[in-house]
Amino acid sequence: MTQIAAERYTGASVRRSEDPRILTGQGRYVADIKLPGMLHAAFVRSPLAHGRVLAVDVSAARAVPGVVAVFTGADLEAMTVPGPELLLSLMGGGGPMPEYTLLATDKVRFVGDPVAVVVAESRYLAEDGCELVDIDYENLPPVVSAASALDAGSPPVFANLGDNIIGPHKRSEFGDVTGTFAGAARVAEFHIDVHRHQNVPMEGRGCVASHDAACGVMTVYAATQSVHVTRMGVAMRLGMEQDKVRVLAGDIGGSFGLKIGASREELAVAAASRALGRPVKWVEDRVENLTASGQAREESFEVRAAVGDDGVLHGLDVKMVIDTGAYPVMGTMVPTIIEMMLPGPYKLAALGFESTAVTTNKASYVAYRGPWASETFVRERVLDLLAKDLGLDPLEIRLRNVAPRTDPPFTMITGRPLVGVTSKESLERIAQVVDIPAFRRRQAEERARGRYLGIGLATFIEAAPGPRSPEGPSGPMGLEHMRLRLADDGVLTLFTGQMPHGQSHQTTLAQIAADEFGVPFGQVRVVVGDSDVVPFGLTGGSRSATMTGGVTLHGARQLRAKVLDFASHLMEASARDLEITAGQVLVRGDPDSAIPVGEVARQAASGQFGADVDTNFEVEASFDGGEGGWSGGSHCAIVEVDVETGLVKVERYVAAEDCGALINPAVVEGQIRGGIAQGIGAVLLERSAYDQDGNYQSATFMDYLLPTACDIPRIEIVHLETVPLDADVNFRGVGEGGMIVAPPTVVNAIEDALTPFGVRIYEQHLPPARILELIAAADLG
Amino acid sequence: MVDITVKVNGATRTGSVEARKTLSDFLRDDLDLTGTHVGCEHGVCGSCTVIVDGRAVRSCLMLAVQAAGSEVTTVEGLAPDGALGALQQAMWDSHSFQCGFCTPGFVMQATAFLSAHPDAGEQEIREALSGNICRCTGYQSIIDGVLLAAHRSREIPCGREADRGGRR
User: For the whole model, what pTM was predicted?
Assistant: First the structure.
């Protein structure tokens, strides 16, 4: 709102350039794409969790007027090339690779597993066709829980694996685990569960694929977090060269980790377009999205904690099992990150960590905002449980364990230095903002009246991007690339591989570029979403603030230097004496010398300058993350639990955050609040539930409950002053922290509210019925 | 097929539709008004909200044939010629949205609500919008945008009409 008055755009809540189009219905989402001759696809999906496919009869479906084709799993097998799941092979950690086909052929492996695809003149007709596909199944016993998957006698979901272990058991030790536990005053043991829940972007998955046989080019209009990763996936499974696949993306209706790569359905749609020679569109409906797009979390932890009588946590020994569902994608990478992050900002001296990943007859485990979030849930839950046993306040036990800022910085027992981490400061700040002693007095008064209030604290750090590793050649997160160009109309264009789906990159990157290059905000364009045009990139892992913000800054600086070098010839002045301000090149202190940057670009393109003068106003920049740094913060929730109904109301929520220098405070706060809302939803409402036969129980919004405007309180945010680590780039990622830390914050508050009942909580999903069960069980116990 | 005539954003539109076709699909596919988004197809998320004869309705739960003879306002009809209406402007100023998918539904729901309740306070606005789901924002910025629009409409009474999407 301070757009005009701001001396610098960076740091101001500049209004988003995305908004005029989305507020007027002019956004272009994948469902809005309409191509001449376009057909529509719908999928026939398995009603069984686990079954053998005996016969697929598509004759009745093919006979429906308007149905153009029906492809079975066997058809698709002939139309594509076999290959590993792209994301599993890129990120899966090197475990065994399950073998399966794009659409089910021999077996179905979860309720919603695609078996056939009907392509018709309209979506209505395609769904009519789906109704008439007759599939004969033989029921197989389903593997519905991680416990049953661990049983060597469980029926293998994938025949080539022989069992249901997709990530073989492994154990690591950091520090002296045996000695720490042997010497501990107390050893506490807990079993902690994190339940299955899911991304649920308001726009589901979808694509329009259009194959041009004459040119041999496949164009895919996609909803994806990376046009390049989607291109890799399509090229790989369709047996095409990458440069013959072009992936385009427009506006994307949220993702939160779901829309990465090329899904089995999207690959089937692309193959159908190639086979039929017509564009084919598939837009997932909500039942498909909830049932089959993917789900997340569902992890269990056996925790042993070695703790002193003073509340100092010396060591943790954690055994994790993760249920990656059917068709494993990214679930096997999660334990590795959890292991690295488990110590958090605390002075833990020893960590034992072991993990096993299993496959089951449920939807695939996908990345969901802060995929490793359970490390924070487990650690922050354990600290509160220990504090209760020791009679310590939750703030006090954290302050006794948190690593203060020191020089050199404390190094996590798992290896990364906590350089610049302000967890101690954020804990102290939040305690001050909330006034915990005043709350405790009110809590006692209300309890006397039969009202149960509770307060919860939790703290987290996030490697967004993480500290620079001394041995790492390319910084904390690999390289980020950008192409920048000054055109002769004076417009500075940034080409980025970031694929925004709510993150506001078209605004925030323009703010940075405008400041660094010296043009008005409105003179910067940010181009995204065309694999033929933008450099490789991916929006995810909270990387864009540092990595893309940084490459924007450095790229704009490089381009500015080029323009000034050229202008020095044009203006017969030393480049050192020139500057670019408000879109004009001028001799410093001489406003009369000003020439618009567009005019400078026109002169450069005029051909009047010799080969010794650089007239190319385009740069390809890369950034390695610089010094990097951690994001983090501490959150506090105050809740009221109605012990008659089990309803929990979040009365107050305060976040003290440190994500470095803010590019656009309103955008940052939107990310924080959105993550917190998802975390509150995960605890109070959301669950991806299966029954004992593997039937999915949460397939509509009447069953999978999302938080509404009445469930989420006004969230108060305090920004901590950051510790600058890098000379130029101190923006840090903020996309995932809210979702990482809100669940333990809220659960800690609920347990605190229920202290008079002696309730202890070892799980994350606490809908009203479960609250009442916990109270009743504690009464009995 | 059924022939229907609907007044959409002030213009008379005709179509020939299957009886089972939803109003949302008619608007999106037949009239190319893709600002109306379909988020759940069972009336829970509110993304497809449009105003039919002055009332906010879920266009995924209404058949196109049921809208025959009605006046329908979609997000495209709030402020023609690429301008922003007062509510849209307030939402832009408040950073109300992120991914934008739920946006048209919220804009239409809030337009209908403010039209009937120009003096609404925060809690009433929260309740009025509690049938619309946003997955990105945690709602606060949306509520703030509606509050700002309500506030501005009280300060500048003549600014109200644009807020209400035109006709009553």
Answer: 0.96
